TrEMBL record:
<feature type="signal peptide">
    <location>
        <begin position="1"/>
        <end position="22"/>
    </location>
</feature>
<dbReference type="GO" id="GO:0003993">
    <property type="term" value="F:acid phosphatase activity"/>
</dbReference>
<dbReference type="InterPro" id="IPR029033">
    <property type="entry name" value="His_PPase_superfam"/>
</dbReference>
<dbReference type="Pfam" id="PF00328">
    <property type="entry name" value="His_Phos_2"/>
</dbReference>
<keyword id="KW-0732">Signal</keyword>
<dbReference type="GO" id="GO:0052745">
    <property type="term" value="F:inositol phosphate phosphatase activity"/>
</dbReference>
<keyword id="KW-0378">Hydrolase</keyword>
<protein>
    <submittedName>
        <fullName>Multiple inositol polyphosphate phosphatase 1-like</fullName>
    </submittedName>
</protein>
<dbReference type="InterPro" id="IPR000560">
    <property type="entry name" value="His_Pase_clade-2"/>
</dbReference>
Length: 268
């Protein structure tokens, strides 16, 4: 349940530069209705449903300065990587669970047949890498931020290296920070610049490097007691029993670990 981020540090001069943006609507992609049940974070589209119709939609009144006298000076954005594949560890768990259902579940329901004939298409080498939607998350976010804060995120500032990009070394984060810059380059039709970023794991993956965090949270069983309480709760038990009964697979085959995070979205 770790989150990995990159930081976009927008360093701003006192100049106020307006950038005229003409943004065309992009075609609405085919998104399965169950999409919002999946993933380790909510989609931007969940928070702002206007994005389903127009991925570049910005509500200008929400990003207006609190008073007409205020001027944007500096902005720091901490941005999570985009939509990604499951990590290797989770691909293995999904595969084991799928095997269990294929080999042990019984019944004649058509949904069971649908599950059994599903193709397990996740492969271990996907290992948490970005999917194309994840790159789009960042391209579009960059364009929306540029539209929201045109005096900060502008082509001039980008070209003058006043916008600083810091990322962790994690491949999905490095790919996200590149996609973010790609979004800006596309917006301004920049063709003569490379992408730039700094890797700083002590800042962006503090959960690996910060001794106090590792000792007091990561290795500390009591710090994560809510997770244990969730796994051993009556609600979790009810879900295990319900799934076990519908698939006609012994209850003991489902552990809270596999059930909670890997099966419920698909089978409940
Ligand atoms: C934009 O935000 C304002 C303030 O929250 C809200 O009143 C308005 O309905 C929003 N406009 C759209 C199109 O969502
Ligand atoms: C472990 O976590 C608990 C609960 O947050 C906290 O009270 C305790 O001080 C932590 N132990 C260490 C060694 O940091």
């Amino acid at each position: 349940m770790k989150a990995t981020y990159f930081l976009a540090n927008f360093l701003i001069t006192s100049l106020s530069i307006m950038v005229g943006l003409s943004l065309s609507k992009l075609a609405r992609p085919a998104i399965p209705a169950i999409a919002h049940h999946f993933g380790t974070k909510g989609r931007y589209e969940e928070v702002n449903p206007h994005l389903l119709d127009d991925i570049l939609f910005v509500n200008k009144s929400l990003v207006a300065p609190p008073s007409p006298d205020c001027r944007a000076i500096h902005m720091v954005s901490v941005i999570r990587h985009g939509t990604r594949y499951p990590t290797t560890k989770n691909v293995k768990k999904i595969a084991r669970l799928f095997e269990l259902v294929v080999s042990h579940a019984s019944g004649s329901a058509s949904w069971l047949n649908d599950i059994k004939t599903w193709k397990m298409w996740y492969t271990e080498d996907m290992d948490g890498r970005l999917v194309e939607k994840g790159r789009d998350d960042h391209r579009h976010l960059a364009m929306r931020l540029a539209q929201s804060f045109p005096t900060l995120i502008s082509e001039d500032h980008l070209r003058a290296n006043r916008i600083e990009f810091i990322t962790s070394s994690k491949h999905r984060c490095v790919d996200s920070v590149k996609a973010f810059q790609e979004g800006l380059h596309r917006l301004w039709d920049v063709q003569d610049m490379d992408y730039k970023h700094y890797v700083d794991d002590s800042l962006m993956r503090f959960f690996d490097h910060c001794e106090r965090f590792v000792e007091s949270v990561e290795k500390n069983k009591t710090a994560l007691k809510e997770v244990e309480r969730f796994k051993s709760s009556a609600e979790m038990d009810a879900v295990r029993r319900k799934i076990s009964s519908r698939l006609q697979i012994p209850y003991s085959q489902f552990t809270p670990g596999n059930l909670a995070f890997y099966i419920s979205g698909q089978f409940v």
